[in-house]
Amino acid sequence: MEAAVYNSKGEDTGKKISLSDEIFGIEPNEHAIYLDVKQYLANQRQGTHKAKERGENAHSTRKLKKQKGTGGARAGSIKSPVFVGGGTIFGPRPRDYSFKLNKKVKQLARKSALAAKAKANNVSILENFTLEAPRTKSYIDFLTGFQALDTKTLLILPDVDSNVVLSSRNLQKAKVTTVENVNTYDLMHADRLLIAEGALSKLESLLQ
């Protein structure tokens, strides 16, 4: 599979680069993508939610009324869940939502996500990209050249470039990451993938 290489202005350089069929040419495994995205989202949860049960409420423990003869149900404590301000029945408790996922499944998920984007023609390869200074206007011009200013984009760089990161962080639909930090959620969340030439070889060696 071949792809055109673009410059930072979104212009075709006339150069072609081959994409690995073992990554971009496979049939996407939707279940692997689902599992990896589910694990990513689960890992983002703090799990610090907590509701007080009847034994934890700071209320009086006196008996509200006599046991018999009132014509109503028995009531021994204001902490009972049937009263307003009482304890919560089986309320949420702090817990860890993370779960284990095999490395091969995660690798297959990332391959499948890249293959799905390539199949939809939403992958663009560009010459190694950098900015001289952190400036949002420069990154806006860069995205405008690719006609991707109003779409969710993910730019994958070979290494951290602080100028590019700082230039893009004020744009809600733009995200910049490195090869080591690429995950299935970001790949699937983006409408358009922009992969730097130097990052492509790293990405292919990482996933093969």
What does this structure look like?
The chain is α/β, with parallel strands linked by helices and 208 residues long. It folds into 2 domains: 2-30 and 102-207, 3-Layer(aba) Sandwich (Ribosomal Protein L4, Chain: A); 46-96, no CATH class. The chain has 7 helices and 6 strands. It has helices at 21-24, 30-44, 103-119, 136-145, 162-168, 184-189, 197-207; strands at 2-6, 12-18, 123-126, 153-157, 174-178, 192-196. A 6-stranded mixed beta sheet has the order 2-1-3-6-4-5. The two termini are 16 Å apart.
Feature tags:
7 helices; 208 residues; six-stranded mixed sheet; 6 strands; alpha/beta
Give the gist of this structure.
Belongs to the universal ribosomal protein uL4 family. By secondary structure, the protein is α/β, with parallel strands linked by helices.
